[in-house]
Write a structure and sequence with these properties.
By secondary structure, the chain is mainly alpha-helical. It has 6 helices and no strands.
Length: about 140
């Protein structure tokens, strides 16, 4: 056989493999972006609720509730199993941050989201809690 044919076959096989590999990587990147966007949207809603104190019966409160439900539904679609478990634990505690247990559960959920989005990047839950919730006086005095 002619060596040019082997070169042509190698070129075609290489191009096909590159196409499928690139397509797979683009798909993974898109999934990661959807997941990270859902996480950040949910955390933004939580922050707005905490900082602005919307009442549920106002237009702003209803809009914030709809945005939160949207982010939660996207998390239920795109999140990994560890995040879903952490989120469910937070929801079972009432999805509020009135007690130390609820705050710890929320931070566990945020840490799981962070791990799911970034992979190997890790921080301590205490540092994450200080950044996300601030330093709480009742914990600081203990």
């Amino acid at each position: 056989m002619n060596p040019a044919i082997f070169s042509l076959i190698g070129l075609v096989v290489g191009a096909v493999l590159q196409f499928f590999f690139t397509r797979h990587l683009d798909s993974k990147k898109h999934q990661r972006e959807l997941r990270s966007k859902a996480y950040s949207d949910y955390l933004l809603c939580v922050s707005e609720l905490a900082n602005l104190g919307h009442q549920k019966n106002t237009l702003e409160g209803r809009q914030l509730g709809a945005k939160t439900a949207d982010a939660k539904s996207r998390i239920s679609l795109y999140a990994g199993p560890v995040v879903i478990s952490a989120f469910a634990a937070f929801e079972r505690l009432g999805a509020t941050m009135n007690t130390d247990e609820q705050c710890d559960s929320f931070i566990d959920m945020v840490a799981a989201m962070r791990q799911d989005s970034l992979g190997g990047s890790s921080v301590t839950n205490a540092d994450l809690q200080a950044v996300v919730l601030g330093v709480r006086r009742d914990k600081a005095s203990s």
